[in-house]
Amino acid sequence: MDKEAALIEAILYLESEALDQSALARISGLSREKTEAALARLEEDLARPGSGIEISRIGGGISLSPKRDYWEILRERYGKRSESRLSRAAMETLSIIAYSQPITRGEIEEIRGVQADTMIRLLVEKQFVKEMGKKDVPGKPIQYGTTADFLRFFRLNSIADLPKLDEREADRFDLQGES
Q1: Low-confidence ranges of the chain (pLDDT < 50)
Q2: Domains of the chain and any CATH numbers
Q3: Are 107 and 100 in contact (CB under 8 A)?
Q4: With CB atoms 3.0 to 4.6 Å apart as the test, which of 51, 96, 124, 132 could cross-link to 102 if both were Cys?
Q5: Cα(30)–Cα(4) distance, rounded to whole angstroms?
């Protein structure tokens, strides 16, 4: 590994949050082009079988993380508090929010068929969900959407990376015709 790639690796190791390429360039003192090239070399080095870590591109940021094969083994011990297991009801509510965002509590309850206050509060507390503003309808209900922590937990770069719903699931989430 060359010095520039090693510098990028050290920065990513020391940072607790994912960084975008501009921040990596600023911190390293390298040009954007050199940062990009060093990052590509680092990614190639870490992709080799002897490495237990990889470059993760999550939520528009770049970070180091255990390779997926190892993370499944390590998650219980090294995962954050917010990464603790979610109940089936919480996962269902989170799925509805992720696929339908922005969405109001009332709309979530209409899809689930039960009250959602407790699940929404739990997901906000775990920082998987946040208020995204108010819907422009009478009463101005709060709309909810997913957070960067949600993307990190599920190892997604963006919401567009969510698995595609089949027709039956899309009907349930009332997403027909939406992209």
Answers
A1: 81-83, 175-179
A2: 3-78 (1.10.10.10), 86-172 (1.10.10.10)
A3: yes
A4: 132
A5: 8
